## 1
Amino acid sequence: MRFREFVEKNDFVDFIIESFENAPIDLVETQDVQQLTQYQKPWSAKKSEILQMWRQVKPNLPVIMTPMHKNYEGKTRSYGEDGIRITGSWQFIAAIIGRLKELLFYENPNSKLRLIFKAIDSSKNARPDRQSYVFYINAQDRGKKR
């Protein structure tokens, strides 16, 4: 399924589900609503689609990273937020972040970079023949100055 078809299909599915959820209860069997609102697997691109998209993306697009939002408890979580995770050898990680220098502009008076760079515990299924690392980068709002 192409991305456009996915979006069109899901907009239609959302419309149908919303229509049934807002319908008077006597018009819709409870079992029908439960079937319509059951978990739907998140969209996932096929390798061929990813390669096609990757080849078509302009190499000079600006990297725009939206700072992470705080949840209702005031905590910041990175899952689903703009960010990058790179794993592997130190040399590989260094080569990749060397190409991402424009992200350094997010370290400024209004935002800060959340950076994590650490060794991976070899007992966690990492390669036993070398030391592996993980590097994370996200942006956060600095918040109000005191």
Note: The radius of gyration is 22 Å.
## 2
Amino acid sequence: MYKIRPKPPTETNRIDRPVSGTFDFQQAFELSPSPLMILNRDLDYVYANAAYLVTTGCTLSEIQGRHVFEAFPETEERTALFKAAFEQALDGTENVLMTEPYAIPVDGGGMREVVWICTQIPLRNAEGEVEYVMQNAVDITEKYHSEQENRVLMRELDHRVKNSLATMQAVTRMSLVDSKSMQEARDDLLARMHAMSEVQNLLVERNWAGSNIEAVLSNALIPFGYEADGGSRITLNGPHALVTAKQAQALSMALHELATNAAKYGALSNDEGTVHVGWTFNNTNGSHFDLTWRESGGPAVTKPTRRGFGTTMLTRILAQEINGDLSLDY
């Protein structure tokens, strides 16, 4: 709940001379673009300008003489907050009520919430006694909701950055342990970070709403010679299917490891080998996605004697991230 903040009195001593001519103060009040309304000590409407009446969807005759909370019923909590602000002004203290949602009627029936910064200003009579309170309401509804969205986005960004850093730490640690030399560790780590960066770019373009599987796979395999218009030794084939941002990241890293292995030891290490990536998607009886990486035409295959980063990525990390099963056939 936002609180009432006392405000220093408006400086009027700079108005050091009377207005000359036949200046119409009532017209100036009526035509002010800022919503203004005046209440008496009983909190009944005395007057309101055109901007206020447009904002609230009323005419002056509909609210004049009525109690402010009769004209605009509110929750008990909000009523108490606004009443306290009005009473402070009637006691002589100008104050500001920050961004408190306030329900107002709309044309055609119903209510809508408007977020205002409301300034309550004491108005004194000739004897110096506070006789009225004037409220200046500035509509900041769009700004308020924009700031709320930004807070959500910042929390989401913080979450994603922490996840990305944790992933990078794991990749770095495993790359250093898995590599045979510092040069190899450097090359492997830079390649993996590049793969992570590329999938991040893909997701950012789609506002982190996930992506389709073909875009994820092609994005991961372009550095290894994949060409969408054909002519490459890597082919993709499967139906349209959507994956979440988390799944896209895991699949992209897995494809990078498979393609790297193929380029070093498998079908992409010679001039004749090919790679075919195919998938199926069945959304009946619960969605089921099946992807197959198949290499042919490469050197003779032997099952590795040690468990490296790529195998760990596929059998443990990928399976966990996509909540799936994985099998390797050499």
Note: DSSP finds ten helices and eleven strands in the chain.
## 3
Amino acid sequence: MKTFQDEILLTEIFSRFVDLYPEHVVFVDPETLSIVYLNEKAKEFFGDNPDLSVFFQQEEYVNLLSLIQNCHKAEEKRVITFKRFDGKKGILLFNLYPLVNNGYRVVVFIFSDITEKIKNKEEKRRRNAQLIIQDKFKSLDLVTSSISHEIDNICNFMANNLRIVLQVWNDVIKLIKEYEKESGEFVLGGIISSEIDKVIPRLMMSLIEGIHRISDKIYDFKKYIKEGFISQVSLVDINEIVKRVINVLNYHISMYTDKFNVQLGESLPKIRVNVQKLEQVIVNLLTNAMQSLPDKKRAIHIFTGTEGDRVYLEIRDEGIGIPKKLMPHIFEPFFSTKGSSGLGLYLSKSIIEEFDGEITINSEENKGTSVKIHFPPGH
């Protein structure tokens, strides 16, 4: 077996090994922070003479240099974002290994691009979450169908009884008026007889209206659940979707604000979306707006309309806003200012872009946030 005594030959073999290594490898001088060597994979990624400061955001680049300078033991499985050639943000998983020989120290920066892996993993998670939601919707559909059937029966029973009471009242009021002519005004249940012919019918009509509102609420909720596991895309009126979501969330909205304003544009072009997915997005954005309000005196505004040939929905709140330093990260996976991801802006953005839409967010601390969604008209 041959032994290697020629250091030049050994160096050439080591260099060849590094060039064939399947990961990106960069040797950095921690004193001067200059690049000593790049393997072939790293050259393909950065180019022959890379300026790493343009690949990374300033703050992360400074942190990376600090890690390299102070690297005296292995630093493994760290993550840094970088600017891809298409302008989008990518993610690198990297390790740092210090090497020392004859007083000379070098740090080996080994990394891999995990952008697509993260994206695929998140997409899989999103699909799985969607399947779970659909399964829950199916279960809820069975429960709500049973409950709504019982409530409908009760509403019908109440409405029929009120109709009978109203018929009886038409006869009773005649007797009351005759007695009033003979004996003068009197009081029934705290109501003066001269006013009772106006008050009682109003009370009955308000009861009938309340019954109809209960039926409408149940119908909207059933429709929301039913469409939860229907994945078809169709032409829809965005105003109808907004109204239905508001109807479902009406109680929660009243808990968070006394100033809820809605201005819906007229004769808007229909958009081509999946109704349930868009409802999920609007529910999420409205929930975010409600939870951002410090008190009930702050308002939430909803607008729909057209800008150019696109239909828009805007949800504007007077909440605490998003800190400026967090704004670049609001669409990243699992981002949340509340400690829980919920549906999340990342998934909301994915759903909106799935139907060729765009979402923009403007926010100012202690003044509020505006979220605007644009969709092309459907055909």
Note: The first strand starts at residue 24 and ends at 28.
## 4
Amino acid sequence: MEKEQNQKTDQNSTDNIQDNKSEIESEKKNTESQEEVNKEVEDKSPEEKILELEDKLARTFAEMENQRRRFEKEREEAFEYGGFSFAKEALNLIDNLERSKQILENDVSLKNSDALKKTLDHLDIIKKDLISTFSKNHIKEIESLNKKLDPNFHQAMMEIEDDEREPGTIIQVIQKGFIIKDRLLRPALVGVSKKSTNKDKKDEENSEKSKEK
């Protein structure tokens, strides 16, 4: 029994010695690594240390300048287009005024009456005031009618046969489009011209005849 206890004690002592040895070796390695780092730093000349500091300062200033520019850009955009969402929603006022005007004009019971004329005059005044307010805030209507379709400002909703105009010419405005400064608020919804089917057939026939000749 005593022999077994002595064996266990010896084993524990051996384990402790090995653990202590591992810790000593680990500390020795850390010390050596730190000494190497310190040696590298000490080996650098004053000029190299100055250049290293200058490089760090230059990087820091460059990062600060980039952050300043980003802040300035965000501030300018917030100032220039801060009312973008409000302006976009306000366009519904013009749409509703125009719809109301069309409904009244198409009302047979009101046709040619003084009440209708006065009401339409008031609606026109309100619309002009709205457009004037928009104009003062750099909100302008996109010119569309009789213009060539521009995907940056127009959205084609339909094609209409028309042989008198070049294909792709805007001949109907379904909903007006607007811009605020150089930014699109909403595109104009339009109808564009296309050649009629009979015209295409005649062009094909004439083309074939000219080839035969």
Note: The two ends are 125 Å apart (CA to CA).
